[in-house]
Structure to design on (69 residues):
């Protein structure tokens, strides 16, 4: 007798998710840079996403905050 496994279990064991992950979805930060799963991001009160590497640019351009020496 052949043991069959439910397709959701097979997919979960293979990928970690029971249903296919939408690989076509891309997210961009406020400055148009692609956000990947390992990026550190900040979210503004308005819901905008800003990459950590763009925080200084955000503070300067959006809030008028400048770094002093």
């Amino acid at each position: 007798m052949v043991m069959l496994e439910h397709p959701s279990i097979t997919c979960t064991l293979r990928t970690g998710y029971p249903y296919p992950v939408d690989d076509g979805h891309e997210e961009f930060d406020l400055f148009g840079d692609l956000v990947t799963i390992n990026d550190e991001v900040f979210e503004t009160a308005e819901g905008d996403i800003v990459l950590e590497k763009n925080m200084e640019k955000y503070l300067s351009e959006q809030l008028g905050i400048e770094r002093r020496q």
User: Anything to note?
Assistant: The first strand starts at residue 27 and ends at 28. The mean pLDDT is 85. The longest helix spans residues 7-15. Helices lie at 7-15, 55-63.
